[in-house]
Design a protein that fits this description.
Largest sheet: 2 strands, antiparallel
Shape: elongated
Helix content: over 70%
Structural class: mainly alpha
Low-confidence stretches: 278-319
Oligomer: single chain
């Protein structure tokens, strides 16, 4: 018979290690985004870039709290109280509702709300319509209510995030959050593929690939965030000890995926409302010297068709 506690403890340890690695990636993304934002000289982007900076800082703060809490709890369980009566399983059962674990849970819930808020905004930008986001908005408010309930139930004395009533509330919260993630990801991916098909008919596959490429879809739709969330909910639903590992990765991508999206936006590579029109080409109509001479007989000017352009190329924007 497999030792459930041993599997849980190993997954907790591996999860903490991955937390440290992904936290380093998050720091790099945050610094890169901040540098781009602070170097912005376009006053038209000043307000939106400032909001992105505030959001990035909030994401970093929440994930820092979560990573620190998980690291401290692991140290307390494996090092400081290595000789705890009953071993690591007993320590986990007796201290899983300690105050700083509740703080970590609250930080992850706030992190979810911030990340999902950004995805809602991006979904609205991609669709240019509020109607597709009606259902996601309802799910979003549902996650806020269930998130508060999760903090309350998991913070009660002798409660356990993975057992009893607290586990049921946590499963309900996680299911609604993942449902929201899946809905938003499908809406964003579907709309981007639709735009890509329209652009491909006009400009060809090479230009359309900008919106159907793996990087564009993964970043714009926050796919790692959604996929690891699905894995976490499935393992939590079947009461698998591996769920703690997927929880760690999921919470980290709750921060990393939005940060990648923010970096893509501030670098000018994100999907915008005017993306389709901005990709239309500029066509140059070239006039010959004979045409200029013929035109001058009717208009008395040197330019083609009475144009004020002295050059031989007249730019015509198709937008």
């Amino acid at each position: 018979m497999e030792d459930t506690n041993a599997i849980f403890q190993n997954c907790f340890y591996v999860g903490n290690t991955l937390n440290a690695i992904l936290f380093g990636i998050e720091l790099m993304l945050y610094v890169a985004s901040t540098v781009v934002i602070l170097r912005n000289e376009d006053p038209r982007n000043a307000r939106s870039f400032r909001l992105f900076l505030y959001l990035s800082t909030g994401l970093l703060l929440m994930i820092t709290i979560y990573v620190a809490v998980q690291a401290v709890f692991g140290q307390e369980m494996w090092v400081v109280h290595a000789d705890y009566p009953g071993g690591s399983a007993a320590y986990l059962a007796d201290h899983v509702a300690v105050w700083y674990q509740t703080l970590g849970s609250a930080a992850s819930i706030v992190l979810n709300l911030m990340s999902d808020g950004l995805l809602l905004y991006r979904c609205y930008v991609v669709w240019e319509d509020w109607r597709p986001i009606v259902l996601p908005c309802l799910l979003y408010f549902g996650t806020a209510a269930l998130g508060i309930m999760t903090c309350v139930f998991t913070g009660l004395p002798n409660s356990n995030f993975f057992l009893g009533r607290a586990a049921q509330v946590a499963l309900a919260y996680s299911s609604v959050v993942i449902g929201l993630n899946v809905t938003l990801s499908l809406l964003i991916c579907g709309r981007m593929l639709w735009h890509a098909r329209a652009i491909e008919r006009t400009l060809g596959r090479r230009v359309a690939r900008k919106y159907t490429g793996a990087v564009a879809l993964i970043v714009e739709a926050a796919l790692p965030y959604t996929l690891f969330g699905i894995a976490y909910v499935v393992t939590l639903g079947v009461n698998s000890p591996v769920s703690i590992l997927f929880l760690s990765i999921y919470v980290m991508f709750t921060c990393v995926s939005p940060q990648m999206l923010i970096l893509r936006i501030v670098m000018g590579r994100g999907f915008t409302k005017s993306t389709a029109t901005q990709t239309l080409p500029t066509v140059h109509i070239t006039t010959s010297q004979a045409d200029k001479h013929l035109d001058s007989e009717f208009t008395g000017s040197e330019g083609s068709c009475g144009s004020r352009f002295p050059d031989e190329e007249l730019p015509v924007d198709l937008v």
